[in-house]
Amino acid sequence: MMHSKPICKRLSKLFLFALCFGALCIFTACAPGDVPAAQAPTTLDLRDAGLTDVSDLLTQTQLVSLDLRGNALFAADFDALRAALPDCDILWSVPLGDARFDSNATTLSLDAVTDDLEAMLAYFPALSTVRLSSAPDSATAAALRARYSAVQFLWDVELFGLTYPESTQALDLSAAQVDLSALKSKLDQLPALKQITFGDEAYPLQDQLALAKAYPSIDFIWNVQLLEDLSVRSDITELDLQKYKVPDAAAFSDALVLFPNLTLLDMCGAGPDDDEMAAMRARYPAIKFVWYTRVSNWIIRTDIKGFSTGNRRKFPDGYGWYASSKFSYTSIRSSDFENLKYCTDLIALDVGHCTSIGDVEFLKHHPQLIYLDIALCDLTDISVLADLRELIYLNIMYNYLTDVTPLKNCPKLRFVNASNNNLTSADTFLELPVLERLWLNCSGLSDKQLAALTEKLTQQLPDITIKASQRNPEYAMSYWRKGNEGYLTVQALYGLRAQHQGTKKD
Questions:
Q1: What is the chain's alpha carbon radius of gyration, rounded to the nearest angstrom?
Q2: How far apart are CA 25 and CA 15, in angstroms?
Q3: In this structure, how many other beta carbons lie within 10 angstroms of the beta carbon of residue 212?
Q4: Are 189 and 135 in contact (CB under 8 A)?
Q5: What is the DSSP letter of 314?
Q6: Residue 108, by phi and psi: left (phi above 0), alpha (psi -120 to 50) or beta?
Q7: Which pLDDT tens digit goes with each residue over 373-393?
Q8: Is the whole model's pTM more than 0.85, yes or no?
């Protein structure tokens, strides 16, 4: 109940209250000591009594209920009573601005947000709803909601001729003429807003960026002039820019913040170099960026799945091509494969025959590899393979390897060709739980080591196929390739013909 009218003095009632209260005091002072305290009143109804001083009530500690509504009291008066009468239920008229409201109110309707509103709402223990005739500023609204999480604060916002409740989560302004400055001045008043849909209007890119930066939690759906010759709706999920040129990679990257739902951006041939594209990828990890990169003399898409130096034409499905009329395995170095780090979808890699490669440290960028061929590379160390835990197919034949213990970290290996090396121990192969095909021709292992290994592996894996000849190096790999599921898979990924699959020689 709101008490906004002046409180009239009721002399007769005040006089009666004074007589009763005085009599009570005399009786208490003069009564014999054996009169029980329970005779003192425990309930007092002093509504509209014109009280402005509560000092006489502070001693009435027997009170359990006290109604002071309609009296011009203030927070300090209530605080004093609350401290003196902790077990008493006190009702009073709480001042808010120029009006007063019953302290047991559950709903308040206020004309304005006063400076003391946050503090005074603490005197309404049953409050559940506050309706404001005008929207508070964002700081005040946040403070009120933070302190009174159980209270619902409501107000309306007028925007371009329409009225919206403060709880609005989505605005459709597609039929309105929207002024971005006017819109920005109202957005703080809609704290629950998550999405705004605009019509076909064109807005300056910098204005859009400023608004999006100011309200990062709001999804703005509008037309964005992404390039001079390209306007794009901001709610797209995929975008192909292969037919466009991006003249300024930095400005383009800034504009991508306006596309919160974008997941795939194909920029093959669009202009930015590897460093600029990598910077965009790092800035927007939720977007898959695809572009052309150069690996030695090959031009490939960064979403290529299988790369082989044996393919010097075109890779399947437009994933890349060989861009030179000359070729030499011996001219290829490890550094030539550095750009493969941009190819995050790569699962199959063949750099075999590159005898001058030196090392394969670039493989540290590819823990996702499933198929790997590094045969005939004159390698002495494959420590980096310890991080390639997804490998199922591995060809390391014709190298100078003595130690293959890094393969212990590759529990998914099914197909391994380690022929023609200088191995000193076969123990590693005993720790590969799903081996299906193991080639160890002329591997450096002794007949005794090979015999022991074969016996143990066939006991552990009865269906395994092992080739371990000391005299037949099987250079052409005809038996290794025939019917080898891993080999057939990688040849398809590389766009190369699978050899040695028929009954005749290939």
A1: 41
A2: 15
A3: 19
A4: yes
A5: B
A6: beta
A7: 999 999 999 999 999 999 999
A8: no
